[in-house]
């Protein structure tokens, strides 16, 4: 398996990368006056570790055959992935203000046909992991050592198709598949733990034959360790990293707000949120 | 409540009415040839597993061909390919959603996957995965499905009577309903060469061979006149072309001259050929399909002719908009109007 890291030689800290992802997402949401900012702020650390520690890719060649595939099953998290891909140099920052507009390459829900680096069309939840199973089978057949990452939400744990894919990955010994679950305990109608996924997720995946880790998804060091373990594991199981994240992380006045699937932000508050980030730039 | 008929026009008696063993006119017991569709007229040539064998021929030439199934390789003839190319065969278990998604993933990585199951499971259970993971991205996945329309006596759980209607609404998807073994063999090669997603209905096991004698060659997207005729124009798809040819022979003997236009590609529809044939004056146009009257060939042709300002005398032979009965296939084909006799009776009533 590939162990090279894209940014091993750079001296920009992961904390700074996560900070940039948050700031880019806020700027994007400000354009539309709305957006899935709670999720983007929450998952920024996971994406920073993905794009600046774990993934192997070439920013100028999003379809490079040797790249690790990163599938965004949760289409509405596109705002977060666009931000990570802008920070990574895959997407141009000067198109940020087109987010969600007519003819934009950055639609509100991520689609493969619109955006360089967006591998699949997500949004119909419970699709990404199954497609990742097929890609992982295909990579093995081609003897390509790349990984397939599938980022999904805790709400998708309620989809039956997710568990079909979980079983298939295990049955086919897909050790080149890493599933990243953003567990922020928030789905459209309320807390995920009050719906189907009650929070005891790692033992379920393990029982299905996966190597399962649960980490604090806002702890960069813990995430680095978990991604390293998942990538370097010498056993034939597929791997899952369940990342417990906090919605709106990094902007205290939003963290304190009543958290919903679609966090309300008043027009004047975007600048306030960005100003708070600007007061806390990491090294 | 549980004794109520399922459909408003159900022919079923109460489930509390005792029944006798059914026998045919010549005294034989009528069994449910349920899993293997009995479409064979007596003495007709058949070919074994045309799809599985064609896929093996393809795989010998192309490394990108892979096969997937959701626990139905034996019942879609994919087992022939699985035995010949075990490392290119993926058993996805009884899980149609991940089978379709995985086919999409394999296609993303450059392969040409043939994914097989029954038509009911692909069209009903896996629809969201076919439309979003495959069709929206125009990936070259070939979905090949057995038991289309009324080709089993198992009842609605296995009878895909509305699959064409369901799939016709899906952008990017090409839909093929082949007639016989010759066409299945040729179409398997043709859809593999086509760069987009395809849904193909499948006849499996010992499949009748009919079109060979007419020198027919399948062309994706093309309707073709199998033979001409001055009184009636049959426009048919799938195995109903077999029935149309037989009905034409029977009617010819009674002095009615029927042309047969075979339309194996339902989408995109070959409007040009259909319009040209339907515009020839003086013929009754009759569409024939192994599918509900709702949303299949008949409605597609009728709407297309209306748009073109072509208004022939018109009728459609199709299954009713009902949940169909379980039973023996020949009985059901008679009952629901797909048998040769039903067709000739219907045509005579319209002339």
Task: Tell me what the structure shows.
The complex is a heterodimer of chains A (283) and B (351). Chain A is built from nine helices and five strands; from the N terminus they run ααβααβαβαβαβαα. Chain A is α/β, with parallel strands linked by helices. In chain B, strand 6, helix 7 (181-193) and strand 7 form a beta-alpha-beta unit. In chain B, helix 1 (50-61) packs parallel to helix 2 and helix 1 runs parallel beside helix 7 (181-193). The radius of gyration of chain B is 20 Å and the shape is globular. At the A-B interface, helix 4 and helix 5 of A face helix 3 and helix 5 of B.
Write a brief caption for the model.
The complex is a heterodimer of chains A (283) and B (351). Chain A has nine helices and five strands, in the order ααβααβαβαβαβαα. By secondary structure, chain A is of the alpha/beta class.
The SS-based structural class of chain A is: alpha/beta
Distance between the termini of chain B: 43 Å
Which two protein chains have the largest interface (Cβ within 8 Å of the partner's Cβ), and how many residues from each? A-B, 33 and 27 residues
Q: What proportion strand of chain A? A: 5-15%
Count, helices of chain A: 9
- Quote the average pLDDT of chain A: 94
- Oligomerization category of the chains in this entry: heterodimer
What is the average of the pLDDT values of chain B?
93
Task: Describe the main β-sheet of chain B briefly.
Answer: 7 strands, mixed
Shape of chain B: globular
Strand order of the largest sheet of chain A: 1-2-3-5-4
Order of helices and strands of chain A: HHEHHEHEHEHEHH
Structural class of chain B: alpha/beta
Helix content of chain A: 25-40%
| Span between termini of chain A | 32 Å
Query: Compute the gyration radius of chain B: what is it?
Result: 20 Å
Number of strand elements of chain B: 14
Number of helices of chain B: 12
Q: Poorly predicted ranges of chain A (pLDDT <50, ≥5 residues)?
A: 1-6
**Low-pLDDT stretches of chain B:** none
